[in-house]
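Milestone M4 deliverable, item 7.
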Amino acid sequence: MNTLSIIEMLLVVAGAVTLVAVIYLNKKATKEKIQPLTNLAAEHQCTLHQMDSWIHVLIGLDQEKNRLFFIRKTESDSASQVIDLKEMTECRILPTTRTVKLADDTRTVTDKLELEIRGKTRAQDQVLEFYNAHLDSLSMQGQLQMATKWREIILQSILLAG
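Output delivered:
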């Protein structure tokens, strides 16, 4: 083996070690981020089969018990909701928008993006806040796609429960 081959082999090994370390740290960070959601589900004797996390929101579903878990964190507070989807009838996306006039154009700006889950009675209605311009960044970063995805998951769970 010449010196060049040894150097190339050492570079490959160093790259592989770095890659493994990055994957491990990413998995650990993700696990730590979703831990509050996992703990909330465990408090209700549930196991999460499906979950997502992004910026300030954690959401998960126990498919067997048909329960939805939602946590929204802000700088000063954390709010959680547990929703029994067997008691729900509908789910829809509620955008709160306003029109802003620019010099020669108008734009629609989203101030809030929420999922409304309607119960069998009005008192059971729940609202999940996915985006709030006053608390989050000035522009949405995937929240609409995530709300759309979870609307479909929730509707499917409501259908299966009915």
